[in-house]
Amino acid sequence: MKVEAIPAVQGNYLLHNYEETAANFDWSDIEKEFSWFETGKLNMAYEAIDRHADSDRKNKVALYYKDQNRSESYTFYEMKRMTNRAANLLKAHSNLEKGDRIFIFMPRSPELYFLMFGALKMGLIVGPLFEAFMEGAIYDRLDDSDAKAIITTPDLLPRVPHDRLPHLKTVFLVGDNIEEDNKIIDVHKYLHSSSDQFDIEWLDKEDGLVLHYTSGSTGKPKGVLHAQYAMVQQYQTAKWVLDLNEQDIYWCTADPGWVTGTAYGVFAPWLTGTTTVILGGRFSPEGWYKAIEDFGVTVWYSAPTAFRMLMGAGDALVKEFNLSTLRHVLSVGEPLNPEVVRWGMQVFKKRIHDTWWMTETGAHMICNYPSMTIKPGSMGKPVPGITAAIVDDQGKELPPNQMGNLAIKKGWPSMMRQIWNNPSKYESYFMNDEWYVSGDSAYMDEEGYFWFQGRVDDVIMTSGERVGPFEVESTLLEHPAVAEAGVIGKPDPVRGEVIKAFVALNEGYEPSEELIQDIQQFVKKGLAAHAAPREIEFKDKLPKTRSGKIMRRVLKAWELDLPTGDLSTMED
Ligand code: 6R9
Description:
AMP-binding_CS, nucleotide-binding, five-stranded parallel β-sheet, EC 6.2.1.1, acetate--CoA ligase
């Protein structure tokens, strides 16, 4: 089902001529915009906070924080002071040194960000964790990285197996009535009395920044290490892709446990001195629309699952809020179905700009820009300075419209620098020392737009036809009864594989044989006969990661009675 292209937006966007910029751009030009251009000595926390606090942005709001109990704001100057206090506290109550790993395992709150940037000021490598992780997931990550400290809350403390982690010397606890001992430090006891002056640890460009663990299809989660230098690309894409300027109020809905919540939750907006909204607590459509209205959000970055949930909450709800400040809307994390883009045009009168990148890439790679036509269903074009291609299994570039491996020419600023403790895993990402191979399959059309097809191992072969599960899922979602869909290939003696769909229904629909047939007909008509699922199974909910990706490998494991592998990133 083709959706019409959506023309470029007229206005003051920062990447006004994609072709011209892409032809002439060199990343090293951007280094000039940083305070460290001459010295080469840098620190993310300085660039993101102190630099603005020491400028005429001093009293500009850096952070609006809101949850059920708190509603607070902090200027860049206040952030500088609070992060200095946090750095002093961490330093005084531990033996942490530059390059040591410290994990953060707590719900969103201003303290999380004070402590995170305080740790960065000390030159520590920060490992953010999802709040819903259980003991096994925490153990794997802290053990693999020999973490020396963790920041957590009394509620979450029982899930930190500190007795089994010999390197873990200090547990910083953020809460009330805390009993300290030789390991446990009460953060609130010292935070406000610590000095608000701190000597930042100056680092080299290649020194560590964050360590994000991410799950592959097999084995234990792997630790993706990013370097300080990632800031070059995070800064520039904040301008080109997020289109952030001085007046913006920016809201990224991602949790800091996910790379989106660090790179684009705080680093990118603060590197550009932009006011950032952080909303704590649980998702609710009302709460989210209200946040846009209350803060006057102008740039909003979220994910397809969230947009689909908002879609499910109905268009009438949107009308109860004043969302007129919204100027630019973006999405990341999984395929943005054309249906969702069309809905965005209807209800927000805004284009939703898809962006493709990965934990390993550290920043945006392939995106839609305000100055460019959007082809709904496409991820857009490479960020200027990035070379993307579709290559075959030998690393040879394929012509337009052929499906293959989505690859990026090695050596962009925010590229991961290590898989922690696992050099051979790191090497396995690269082909011929030239291409980083993403593990996604895609094709590029004649106009240079990239189209996502699936994870390489998710591609379905049925009766000799290659079918991308995403296309089938997108078509399924256009059926009025379907709220969520996950599609896998099921081994079949005749056809190689047949297509099986797992479907969660919208309210008001009940599973039935008629409905199965109706949905099958719908896909046959909308997409292709060979792409229609032979089997449809109804589920109340589909297995998803915390960042909203449908876990097809779990669906497949259910189907084939196989072990499901590492589930630490799965939603409850
Ligand atoms: C930032 C982030 C990376 C994987 C990636 C791909 C999927 C991300 C997407 C997308 C289709 C998009 N993905 N963005 N698929 N369209 N715009 O998501 O990092 O959690 O490491 O996931 O997510 O499969 O390979 P991460």
